[in-house]
Every structure is written in structure tokens, then in C-alpha cells.
Amino acid sequence: MNLDLPTSKHDESRQGEALVLDKPVLKNNGRKLYIESYGCAMNFSDSEIVASILADQGFETTLDFKEADVVFINTCSIRENAEQRVRNRLKEFKVSKQRNPGMVVGVLGCMAERLKAKFLEEEKLVDVVVGPDAYRDLPNLIEQVDSGQKAVNVLLSREETYADISPVRLNSNGINAFVSIMRGCDNMCSFCVVPFTRGRERSRDAFSIVKECADLFNAGYKEVTLLGQNVDSYKWTNEDGITLNFAGLLEFVALINPKLRVRFSTSHPKDITDEVLFTMKKYDNICKYIHLPVQSGNSRILELMNRTYDRPWYMNRIDAIRRILPGCAISTDVITGFCSETEEEHQETLSMMDYVQYDFAYMFMYSERPGTLAAKRYTDDIPEDVKGHRLREIVDKQQAHSHLRLLEQIGQVQQVLIEKRSKKSALDYSGRSDKNATVVFPADDRFKPGDYVNVLIEKCTTATLIGKIVG
Known about the structure:
Layout (H helix, E strand, L loop, with lengths): L16 E2 L13 E6 L3 H15 L4 E2 L8 E6 L4 H20 L4 E6 H5 L1 H7 L5 E3 L7 H9 L4 E3 L22 E5 L1 E2 L10 H5 L3 E2 L2 H13 L4 E5 L7 E3 L5 E3 H9 L6 E5 L8 H9 L6 E3 L7 H6 L6 H14 L4 E8 L6 H14 L3 E6 L7 H5 L6 H24 L5 E9 L6 E6 L4 E5 L9 E9 L4 E5 L2
Parallel strand pairs: 2-3, 2-4, 4-5, 5-6, 6-7, 8-11, 11-14, 15-16, 16-17, 20-22
Antiparallel strand pairs: 1-2, 9-10, 12-13, 18-19, 18-21, 19-20, 21-22
């Protein structure tokens, strides 16, 4: 197959972020769009798709929902507190709608499919409910609301990938961009709502992915993150019946230009292959960082979670990463207090953390999500105080490991992509290393955001590397 074209986690700081177009809309219809996003990187990427579709219809974007004609909130159903934040936000929008009856208020994304009846009929908070596969239908749905009706489209698709839509880059720094390579998920993890809210897995046309990444690089972007619920199961077949897997796609994106950094998220332990690891080793511009969720270190709990791997399998994949990619940074997700988890099983999760010594982790107490397999099959029987105690132990251990991984890098020279001025001082730059660590160093007039620099790491805090430009 000739792809010689012209050349996935919750970021807490972005939750509730409102997005705005950088450029004026060419065919302005006089209406303004406000869109606010919650959840994972996929949701923020989807918001860009929505903005692209509505920009083509003449909508301008605004950062003030009170002046908007259409207000959308792009939602997440993974955690209970995210749902509560969305509900509280919708109540604020409802107050504005009372002052401006013509305002259209809508819910997009994962909560849309699951809670459509509550939003539309019981709580009467919204006018339109749209699932992740129905964004092309938004112009029609808005027109339907304008005519005085409620509008719903939460149909899931086996084909929709939005491959032909070039997302506008909202609130972009012009340096980093997310590129969606697939949608949906076929893994039926018992704690997760994603297969029910985002549908079955389907991979996007590889030509469109490579073209989008090449266009981003030609527009000045220096880093792309390939997104999917499970990127390692990417599989696309062309008209001649030739199939490209994730390792092949990763290679084609890396070949666009050696100055384009490539990241990806998220990997699944059952699917990440040595072929992917050797591809990462082959190309310097593929970042040596892997997010590999473990969820639990105990095989019985993993089976209850329907993770389709056990403790030895996960350790084997960690061993492969360490063997093929020495020094590769590894992050993870951990859920503590899953149904029937014993203290001994919790200790196995702690021992897994000691085995890997993750660079970073997202750590949560188990929160039962309605409609999931776990909610139907198992009792959420771990007391909240026990969950909280176990989570504290996990967090404390991870903080120690994260600090240890940073201490190991003192004295090393890291290539850093400058992203912005430091939040704490305008005299410093902030960027990320190949291993995804945040690095802060004195600004130098010779360099600007978007440039690569070599930084000698001199010290660290518990979360940040600190150094100076060398060479």
C-alpha cells in the first residue's frame, strides 16, 4: 500500500474549557456558538469537529455563553463528579435561557445517549441532545429546535469516523494537536460506559490521518497525538484488501518529517505489540512514552473488570517495554475499591506499582456507572472510607515513584519542545520532554515557543524538571 503522501486522559486543567475559533467565519449567519468540553482528549477533539461543522453553517464562536445563540456542553460519563458538574452548568445555562428564550441549549457526547430522557423530559434543561456519531446532523437539529421542537439524535454508527472533516483548532497554541484515528471501543470493560456511549470500534482512513498530520506540520505544528480509545487495535483495510495496523500507521506519521513529534493514547495491555515498540525504537520523533492502564494488579479483579489480561500478562508487556525501549516513560490508570476487592488484592495493586514504578498515574476510587456490566452483575460493596484509605495509599506511592523518576533525570540533557511561558514566571519557558515530563527553564531570546531546545536538567520538584538551555 502506497501512503507516500505530500508531507487518547483527562487533563484536569482543561475541564469546562470554552473553545473559540482563531479565524473569522467567512459566511457569517449572525449567530454565535458557545461550546464547553469535559472529559478526555477525545471529547476536546470532538468539539473541534462540531465547531468545524457549524463554522461551515456560518456560526461564530464566543467565550461568553450569555451572548451565545447556541450553547453546547460536550460531556463525559466516565466519572460521577463529571456528570454532576455538567448538571450544575446546565442550570446556569437555563437561567440565561430564561433571559434569552431564543437560546438553544444542547448536550453533546457520552452523557447525551445515556441521559437523554432525563435532560429532555424530567429535568427539562436542554433543547437538543446529540450523541458522538451524529454531529453531522447538528445543522438540521438546530433548525428543528428553532421551529419549536425538541431534537434528539443519539444513534450510534458502525461507519462514522468524520474522516473528511478537517477540525478547526480551537484555543490552539499552534504547536500541539490531537488527531483522532478511530472511534468507539470493542472492549467491554465491566466498569466502563464507553462502548455504550461511543459505539463499536471503527478505524479512520489512513490516508486522511496522514494528510491531516502533514497539513498540521506544514501549518507550523510540531507535535501530534494520535487518539483512540484503544489505538493498538487500529486496523484499516484499503480497496485492494491490504490492511494497515497501528504500527504501520505510526510509522507513516513518523515519516512525515523528523521534526514532527508523534505521541499516542491510549494503549491496551492486551493489544500493544512488540511491533509497535520496535517502531517506536526505530524513529527518534516517536516519543518514548506509553500510557498503559493497569486498573488493578490482581488477576481476579482484572477478570471481574473484563480486562482480558491477567497480572503476569501485564508484567510481560512492561518487561517488553523495558527491554526494547530502555528508559521509556510509562503512565497508567488505577481503580481502587472495585467490587469485592479484598485488602490482599489491594496490596497486589501496590506491589504492581512497585514493580513498574510509573512516571505518572491517574488514580480513582471505583464509581459505579449505571448501565455498565459491573452495575448489572456486581455489588458495589466496598465502603467509601475503605476506598478512600486505599486510594490514599496508591496516591502516596505514586507521588514517591513520580518524584523518583524525575530525580533519575537530573544531570541528563533532554530535548524539550517549548510550548509557552511558565505559569509561575514570564521569565521562564515551559515545555515537555520526549518522556512527557514538564520542564521549566530560563527563557532565551534565541528561541520561541515551537522550537526544540536541549535542556540540562539541574533539579526537580515533585512534579517538574528544572534546568537550563545548553548547546
